[in-house]
Design a protein that fits this description.
By secondary structure, the protein is of the alpha/beta class. The chain contains 7 helices and 5 strands, in the order ααβββαβαβααα. Helices cover 44% and strands 17% of the residues. Helix 3 packs parallel to helix 4. The longest helix is centred in the middle third of the chain and has 19 residues.
């Protein structure tokens, strides 16, 4: 089994092999089985409750609320892409992002918020726009006094797919298999769900 299959099997409560045909597979199997001398990520999932994942962008912010409970796969409660046309002025776009995050939190028991970090931006103007979108999204959660955690894309890919070089398509497929969602998630929604999954898989108390 490869790493992705191991994640899926573990989440579904199935047995995970202790050894594989290749050294990498064996090491991964040992890690999942707890033979590495430290608890496996899922045995420590430690986190139970609802996480709001956010993939911020001025014109296409992704949102996903996932519930984590012991003994069952993650449950996707809500997902949305906040699509904002180019003709909408920036102040109004920021207001829509803030409002969408607030609506995602309304009526739910979200305990933590996980935000995908921006590692690379093309220029100062792009960084400024993206930073404004991030601020609008984070402010909506901060006003609820929710803990906010940030994760880089490489860390999220490693937690979900098993490699930091996974493609967006691989991420989409793996996220959908983990949450058992019936429809194809949009790229921004999958990224937001990936941030939430990464948080639940790697959270170890106060960070």
């Amino acid at each position: 089994m490869n790493v992705r299959q191991m994640w899926k099997a573990k989440l579904e409560g199935l047995a995970v092999p202790r050894a594989g045909g290749r050294r990498a597979s064996a090491a991964a199997a040992a890690s999942f089985a707890g033979d590495s001398g430290r608890p496996s990520p899922l045995s420590r999932t430690a986190f139970e409750g609802q996480v709001l994942g956010i993939d911020p962008s001025l014109r296409g912010t992704g949102l996903a609320v996932i519930e984590f409970s012991a003994g069952r796969p993650p449950l996707l409660l809500h997902c949305r892409t906040v699509a904002i046309p180019q003709r909408v002025p920036m102040p109004e776009a920021l207001a829509r992002i803030h409002r969408a995050v607030s609506e995602a939190l309304d009526g739910r028991s979200v305990q933590h918020v996980a935000v995908e970090q921006s590692i690379y931006v093309q220029n100062f103007q792009t960084a400024q726009i993206l930073g404004s979108a991030r601020g609008a999204a984070i402010a909506a959660a901060a006003l609820r006094e929710l803990p906010i955690f940030e994760y880089g894309p490489t860390r999220i890919k490693r937690a979900i797919v098993g490699t930091g070089r996974a493609s967006k398509e691989q991420m989409q497929r793996m996220v959908m298999s983990l949450v058992g969602h019936g429809r194809t998630l949009a790229p921004d929604e999958a990224d937001a769900a990936g941030a939430a999954l990464c948080h639940a898989f790697t959270y170890r108390g106060e960070q």
